[in-house]
Amino acid sequence: MKVLVINGPNLNMLGIREKNIYGTQDYNALVAFCQNSGKELGIEVDCYQSNHEGCLVDKIQEAYGVYDGIVINPAAYTHTSVAILDAIKAVSIPTVEVHLSNVDEREEFRKISYVRSACVTVFYGYGFDGYRMAMEALIKNSTK
Ligand code: DQA
Predict the structure, then answer these.
(1) Any bridge partners for residue 112, and if so which?
(2) Is 54 buried (19+), middle (13-18) or exposed (0-12) by CB count in 10 A?
(3) What is the pLDDT of residues 14-38, one digit of tens each?
(4) Active site residue 99
(5) Hey, which of 13, 78, 90, 130 has its CA 20 to 30 A from 96?
(6) Which neighbouring-strand residues pair with 73?
(7) Global confidence as pTM
(8) Residue 52 known to be catalytic
(9) Mutational test site, ligand 1, from 19, 33, 53, 100, max ligand atoms within 8 Å of CB
């Protein structure tokens, strides 16, 4: 099984940005965590990050026929992007939404997710662990 982990804008600033919310570990540590989780779960994992909505859409489109699952933290685009929602729907690849923070306990606008309706499930508020939980959900979903 091949899984693509996609991270949206400002997640490359992990370890620097709002440490009280996102923690002190940086983006490279997140990539290492995802790679290790993949190894332990027996799946192949590739990671991608972009600050640009169109690049995220391109990456989702390119995943068609290549990946069996997507783990996506669309970051701020979660709350605005019909284009990312449509891309996930277009490729029909089982996708799990992830957020490091508990988006339900923050500003009102963070409670809205444009992508959620196209996702198998969502994990938020578990920090890095949410990415592993998302991989486990994809594995479970693939054996349904
Ligand atoms: C985030 C939550 C979003 O609301 C925010 O814009 C982010 C990160 C998270 O992982 O908690 O950039 O997706």
Answers:
(1) none
(2) exposed
(3) 999 999 999 999 999 999 999 999 9
(4) yes
(5) 13
(6) 7
(7) 0.97
(8) no
(9) 100
Question: Which position has the token pair 């540590």?
Answer: 29
Task: Kindly report the protein residue whose alpha carbon is nearest to atom 13 of ligand 1.
Answer: 75
Q: State the SS3 of the chain.
A: CEEEEEECCCHHHCCCCCHHHHCCCCHHHHHHHHHHHHHHHCCEEEEEECCCHHHHHHHHHHCCCCCCEEEEECHHHHHCCHHHHHHHHHHCCCEEEEECCCHHHCCHHHHCCCCHHHCCEEEECCCCHHHHHHHHHHHHHHCC
Q: Which atom of ligand 1 is nearest to the CA of 10?
A: 12
Spot the catalytic one: 77, 99, 124, 131. Answer: 99
